[in-house]
């Protein structure tokens, strides 16, 4: 057997072992999870995550996921807690302490502090009979099925299970609270997520930036408006200010003729153009532009049939919406 085949077999054993641990955790889920979620949702303060070693690394990720999905949360290192960071905890908080075996000595001061001040303590451990298990108000049990590590020592299956349990808590709370894409965007204004979650209203040109004329306007005047606004089109309004058509620079090229400037925009415009709601995600606007039969580069945003803005393909690309 080649070294490559040995590596692949080892990888598959690791995957299988970790899936097995997750399946065991799934089979053991009960109403303790619901009770833990009730406590976390009802807290007037924050969800404080703590743990030592690998449990701490996973705890940091859990706290970050909770915070980004609508549950105020942060991580407290148990060793630092013993040297002043216990002051970060309030009686309105809830503490989630993680320890696979449940006997991390560094957690003792946080446990005692929770008991002294009546702070709810949710324990995450594989051993309900451990110190952490016995002192917790609730125990969310990790699967006791060994590690994927062939030595049975390095946290592997246990940390995967802890990470998944943290995701379960975050997703359940997100769903309970009705957390929306808009809420998510407010917590992720930067980077790729921030770009993807921008709305049309965040990027569109408004007010005097919009190229608009009425349907009895001459084609010559419409061309001047289109040129001055530099968006490659002009929107056509009826007497009530509702959008009834559009003329693009492509439309103008197609109607080139000696008498073109004697015509009115109503003779040339494309009626019932594609439009979009200003609250639509910019990514969806980009998809609409790219998938429309002829391919378009701009969309008017309407409210009650009246244009409130216009978004151009280049606006999306500049904002990183791809």
Write up this protein:
The chain has 322 residues and is of the alpha/beta class. The chain folds into 2 domains: 3-179, 3-Layer(aba) Sandwich (Rossmann fold); 200-318, CBS-domain, CATH 3.10.580.10. The protein is built from 15 helices and 12 strands. The strands form 3 sheets. Strands 2-1-3-4-5 form a 5-stranded parallel beta sheet, sandwiched between helices. Strand 4 (121-125), helix 6 (131-135) and strand 5 (138-141) form a beta-alpha-beta unit. Helix 1 packs across helix 7 (157-177), helix 2 packs across helix 7 and helix 3 packs parallel to helix 7 (157-177). The two termini are 45 Å apart. The mean pLDDT is 89.
Query: pLDDT under 50 segments (min length 5)?
Result: none
Radius of gyration, in Å, reads 30 Å
Q: In the CATH hierarchy, what is the architecture of the largest domain at level 2? A: 3-Layer(aba) Sandwich
Can you tell me the CATH class of the largest domain?
A: Alpha Beta
What percentage of amino acids are in beta strands?
15-25%
The helix content is 40-55%
Q: Which secondary-structure class do the elements indicate?
A: alpha/beta
CATH homologous superfamily placement of the largest domain: Glucose-6-phosphate isomerase like protein, domain 1
Order of helices and strands: HHEHEHEHEHEHHHHEHEEHHEEHEEH
How would you write the strand order of the largest sheet?
2-1-3-4-5
Measure the end-to-end span: 45 Å
- Got a strand count? 12
Largest sheet: 5 strands, parallel
Helix count from the secondary structure assignment: 15
